Amino acid sequence: LLLLSFQACTGIENIDEAITLLEQNNWDLVAAINGVIPQENGILQSEYGGETLHGPAYGPTSHSTAAASTPSSSSAFHHVVPSRQIVERQPRMLDFRVEYRDRNVDVVLEDSSTVGDIKHILENELQIPASKMLLKGWKTGDVDDSTVLKTLHLPKNNSLYVLTPDLPPPSSSHSGALQESLNQNFMLIVTHREVQREYNLNFSGSSTIQEVKRNVYDLTSIPVRHQSWEGWPPTATDDSMTLAVSGLAFPCHRLTVGRRTSPVQTREQTEEQCTDVHMVSDSDGDDFEDATEFGVDDGEMFGVASSALRKSPMMPENAENEGDALLQFTAEFSSRYGDCHPVYFIGSLEAAFQEAFYGKARDRKLLAIYLHHDESVLTNVFCSQMLCAESIVSYLSQNFITWAWDMTKEANRARFLTMCTRHFGSVVAQTIRTQKTDQFPLFLIIMGKRSSNEVLNVIQGNTTVDELMMRLMAAMEIFSAQQQEDIKDEDEREARENVKREQDEAYRISLEADRAKREAQEREMAEQFRLEQIRKEQEEEREAIRLSLEQSLPPEPKEESTESVSKLRIRTPSGEFFERRFLASSKLQVVFDFVASKGYPWEEYKLLGTFPRRDVTQLDPNKSLLEVKLYPQETLFLEAKE
Asked: According to the UniProt entry, which residue ranges have a biased composition of type Basic and acidic residues (predicted)?
């Protein structure tokens, strides 16, 4: 009804354009119409009689006539004629207050002008090349120099600011003053008047007043257009203004917010407000609540399917790869509801389980599964006001792995139900299967256990931010208790495994020591055996040499021999003596051989004479005993060589 009334008054037939204009004015019908048809251009041309009407299009008489002609009408607004027939559109003028550093420039242009026209005017005023300007503060999305102002659906009064990042600052005292203020953090102490509760909110200087009000709505559930504020500086005249230029006290500023009370208006007051829109309202301003307050999607409220207003689905049908499907889901979600949203896990549901449940107990998290449905009337408000609330986004990112799926297409719905049956059982799958479209979106909270995965909670779309947060925190309490038990069990198991590892290591070291000791003993025994073998071989070799020498000795001459005989008496190092007779003509080598046959080879021992003391082994062994004066008898002694 609100959309139809707005279209009838303004002549705008494009539904998307009409909804955009209403949303920019928080669904305030009078403000939206005044934004399209300003009061100063309220001269109307009537095709009924050719007369010109000035001022209010309706007085009491006309209103009563209209009311009498349609007594059974359920509409609060009565149309006289389509506005395209009675309104001759005049050029609409837009006022811009442009801030650049310490200067403010007022620019007035027709709505048929472009953004580039504003820059050219500023170029003359500020002496800055238009190519170096960044014009910020637009309420809409991307804007370039060729954008026509009419397409932005701007209100009459607008606030913008200019950034020149490529230009050097004018002086050290003012360098980066605006940029510095945009980077500052403001502490806003907001008191909720009705419940006497304070909220300490931190915002950057680049945040707008509108963003503050939307965040306060998440905390207090007071819609932006119903908020009544106290404490804003007089310079804070536009919600698109950033906090840095709004005149707030830095670093802390106190504000008070409450719910605005709207007194019931009389019919005459209503008619006066509707002078420029050519219609009469029988209801007060609070009768037109935001569609989002009732959980109704904009398109559904006006009989237009939500999916018809959106360009692409959240997820392709029959997607082969779940990771690719989630990539498209995340991109489409961001384009619809902004970048402040939960971080969706990109991958299969099994991979999400692995990430959430199968790490160390201290690193495990709950798994949150968001089930989207484009045809549900609750989807738009749940996504924009609950799921994208900063408090919810922050809590989910810290404590949950968030996975998403689109249930709009039947093939995707069937695929998820199959996954659900496999991982959670038929009971949970049947519960989701029986959910009606208007009960979506759903938020499933899953906790991993040793034997199975347990669904702790199924949250439907008809909830509030506070209730959603409470249910998330309740699930987190259950999970924390289970996690502490798992951590305790894991620590005990690791302690047992550490003890076992230490015992195994000690046993291994002991085995290594025993084996090393045994190997050392074996090496020692082998060395002893080798040395013994060498010794035996040497002894055997020496014995063989001794026997050979003993056998090669000439026979000992007899005492009654007629030949000259030399009698030698030899003393060993141990003090023993042995004697033998030799022919005086025998060579000295025969004596050496005799001594060697007794175990004293001349290579190791020397044979010494007494008087005079001499080393016999140094004499020529081929000389006879007679020649070396060892005749007729001599006492010699053996001494080991050094």
From this structure: 493-503
